[in-house]
Amino acid sequence: MVRRLNRLTTERSAMIILFLLIFAMASRVSVDTDLWWHLRSGQTSAETGQLIYPDPFSHTFTDVVHWNHSALVDLLLYAIWRHAGFTGITVATAIAAVAGMSFLFITCRGSAYPRAFLIVLGAATAAVFWSPRPQMLSFLFASVLLWILRDLKYNRRDRLLWILPLQMIWCNAHGGFIIGYLLIGAFVFGEVLNSKFAASGSPLPPQHIRKLLLLSAASIPLLALNPLGGRAYAVPFNTISMPELGRYIQEWQSPDFGQTRAWGFVILLALVLATMCCGKRNLDFTEWLLVCGSAAMGLLAARNLALFAIVAVPVASDHLDDILQSRGWVIPFRDFESPIRAVINLCLIILVSVAVGARLRYLLSADSINAGLKSTLPVDAVEQLDSLELQGNMFNSYNWGGYLMFHAPQYPVFIDGRSDLYRSFLDEYYRIATARDGWRQALDRWRIGFAVIETNSGLAEALASDQTWITAYQDPLASIFLRRIPLSNG
User: Fold this and answer.
1) Which residues have a Cβ under 8 Å from the Cβ of 331 and sit 6 or more positions away?
2) Backbone phi, then psi, for 423, in 5-degree steps?
3) Could you give the strand order of the β-sheet that contains 393-396, starting from the edge strand earlier in sequence?
4) Quick one: which of 89, 97, 82 has its CA closest to 24?
């Protein structure tokens, strides 16, 4: 027992504390508005036994089949919610984040402390992406795949067979499975260039490149083992081809560098480029393709910042370790610690664990959850709906559609976060939401009798000054408007 405790060195203790803190960072009351439509979708699948079905949630796309590529994960999310509520959802999200960062840590090279610093910076960059949605599995699977590829490149350990089940499971979890093929493509192309121009110190042997290509090709037919069948192949391309995403959806727009949450990306980008340029290692095309490609994706859409963190952290660790080694600035790793220090390390771990547990308990208290939800969602407004005399169909904020689907299912929504279902209909929504030309006629055409929208929105201002509408409820966040003149039956 004493000998085992002596293995609790300062370095190992620091790593344990590091991931406890990352768990704490990833544990938060989710205000992600898309969580709710995922839960409603999973609930419907659990109750009906169907994963793919005609849409029963909206009055605008009633009976249109939603080819939900994350139906299995929605079912899992609902099962977690049903049995463990917010606690289960929060812990599951944090576990996925820690698992992804753990694979990044073992992918990195060098001594413990520089790796820990880079992991913290990577977590700060990726944390804007962490939320209880199927895309968390894309974060985890991308980390696993990069670990497989880098382990082959630098350690010649062949785990390429894992690509087959990984890509098949990934495709069943989220449309981001295309990221796997992008990573593989950049890796193969980079290694071919390394071999051709003798750039890298140890380019991947041709037989490994051939095997990687063969297994990647073999994984493609497995993608059809999916509730969507062959339609799964088109999912990422259907998403990318939607210009409406970049126009209207914040996470598909370029990062706002005026916000602090984008600073991690800026610092990590500067660090990885500086270490790659200042280090004395040979030019490596694979590294440059991965870093530049993921950075470009991150600059185009904020949701890709997590992918950049996955790629950049291990590359930065390679070059930073070389720089530190060349200057002799490396703290040697110890296998054993003195008994007194080991006990101190254990006490520190226990202390941090208790603090993390206390934070989680406070975070998941009823008061904290309600405060978090009410800061971004129309909680109080939804509670008022049944007390009002409502007629006609509902118009609602895009961001609140999922919440209304789950907490007020008796009122079919106008729109919600399932952008792959609504596609070009987003233009119709935003014309009404911003009170642009023709918005009154659009409300009449969709027979809208009441609206649940943001109090400070353009439409709220327009309805408040329109004689045919009255304000039935209003708080600083949400307003409910009713038609003063009943809709005709025509």
Assistant:
1) 11, 111, 112, 113
2) 45, -115
3) 393-396, 448-454, 478-483, 469-474
4) 97
CB atoms within 10 A of CB 297: 17
Neighbours of 46 (CB within 10 A): 14
Residue count of the chain, please give it: 490
Is residue 80 helix, strand or coil? helix
Q: In this structure, are strands 478-483 and 393-396 parallel, antiparallel, or unpaired? A: unpaired
Contacts 24+ apart (CB under 8 A), 370-374: 372/28, 372/29, 372/30, 372/31, 373/29, 373/31, 374/477
Which ranges in 408-485 belong to alpha helices (H)? 419-422, 425-433, 439-445, 458-464
What is the per-residue pLDDT across 239-267, written as a single tens digit (0 to 9) for each? Answer: 888 888 888 888 999 999 888 889 999 99
Where would I find the H helices in 204-304?
206-222, 235-240, 243-248, 263-278, 285-300
Q: Identify the helix (H) or strand (E) that includes residue 454.
A: strand 448-454
**What is the reported pTM?**
0.94
370: how many CB neighbours lie within 10 A of its CB? 12
Q: Residue 12: helix, strand or coil by DSSP? A: helix
Please give the torsion angle defined by the CA atoms of residues 308, 209, 177 and 53, in that order, rounded to the nearest 10 degrees: 170
Which residues, at least 6 apart from 162, have a Cβ–Cβ distance to it below 8 Å? 144, 148
pLDDT tens digits for range 41-52: 999 999 999 999
Mean pLDDT in the chain?
93
Pair 180, 142: CB distance under 8 Å: yes
Strand partners, 474: 479
Distance CA 119, CA 113 (A): 10
Helix, strand, or coil (residue 413) = strand
**Which residues are paired to 65 by β-bridges?**
54
CB 46 within 8 A of CB 79: yes
* Distance (Å, whole) CA 124 – CA 267: 10
Q: Which burial class, exposed, middle or buried, applies to 63 when counting CB atoms under 10 A from its CB (0-12, 13-18, 19+)?
A: exposed
Task: Return the structure tokens found at 431.
Answer: 């014309």
C-alpha 198/C-alpha 419 separation (Å) is 46
